[in-house]
C-alpha cells in the first residue's frame, strides 16, 4: 500500500532529467546527483526540461515505486536552482500543491489548472 504521511521526506531534483530513465537510471541519479540513499524511505522527484512531466521514485521497504505524471497542457511550477544546490527538500503538502497546479512562489493556481466540480 502506498501512503504518504506528514513525516515523509521529499527531495526535488532542481536540474532537469531525461524522462526515458527508469528504475535503474533514476536510482543512480539519487545516489550520484542528489547524494541520498534511495532506501531511506524518501520520495525523489524529477522533471524534464520543459516541466511538463515528472517522475517520482520511492522505496517502500519491499520494492521500488515509479510514479509518472504528464501534463496535457501547462507546466509545473518548478523550484529554481539559486545557489548551486542540486536538490530541494519539500514537505509532503508542498509536493501535493506542486502536482495539483499551485505555483509555490505565489500560492496561486496555474492558469492551465481547472478542477471539475
- The main sheet orders its strands as 4-3-2-1-5
End-to-end distance: 28 Å
What does the average pLDDT come to?
85
Tell me the total number of β-strands.
7
Residue windows where pLDDT falls under 50 for at least 5 positions: none
Helical segment count: 2
Rough outline: globular
- Indicate the structural class: alpha+beta
Q: Tell me the major beta sheet.
A: 5 strands, mixed
Overall domain count: 1
Work out the helicity level.
10-25%
Strand content bin = 25-35%
Description of the molecule:
With 117 residues, the chain is α+β, with helices and mostly antiparallel strands. The protein has one domain (10-109). The protein contains two helices and seven strands. The strands form two sheets. The protein has a five-stranded mixed sheet. The chain has a two-stranded antiparallel sheet with strand order 6-7. A hairpin with a 4-residue loop joins strand 6 and strand 7 (108-109). The radius of gyration is 14 Å and the shape is globular.
Write the layout of secondary structure elements.
Elements: E1 10-13, H1 23-32, E2 43-47, E3 53-59, E4 64-70, E5 87-90, H2 92-99, E6 102-103, E7 108-109
Parallel strand pairs: 1-2
Antiparallel strand pairs: 1-5, 2-3, 3-4, 6-7
Condensed summary:
The protein contains two helices and seven strands, in the order E-H-E-E-E-E-H-E-E.
Provide key terms for this protein:
117 residues; alpha+beta; 5-stranded mixed sheet; two-stranded antiparallel ribbon; 15% helix
Amino acid at each position: 500500500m502506498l501512503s504518504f504521511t506528514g513525516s515523509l521526506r521529499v527531495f526535488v531534483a532542481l536540474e532537469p532529467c531525461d524522462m526515458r530513465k527508469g528504475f535503474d537510471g533514476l536510482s543512480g541519479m539519487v545516489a550520484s546527483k542528489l547524494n541520498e540513499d534511495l532506501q531511506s524511505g524518501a520520495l525523489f522527484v524529477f522533471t524534464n526540461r520543459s516541466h511538463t512531466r515528472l517522475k517520482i521514485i520511492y522505496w517502500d521497504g519491499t520494492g521500488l515505486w515509479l510514479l509518472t505524471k504528464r501534463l496535457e497542457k501547462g507546466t509545473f511550477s518548478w523550484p529554481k536552482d539559486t545557489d548551486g544546490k542540486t536538490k530541494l527538500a519539500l514537505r509532503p503538502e508542498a509536493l501535493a500543491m506542486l502536482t495539483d497546479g499551485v505555483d509555490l512562489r505565489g500560492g496561486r493556481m496555474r492558469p492551465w489548472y481547472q478542477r471539475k466540480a
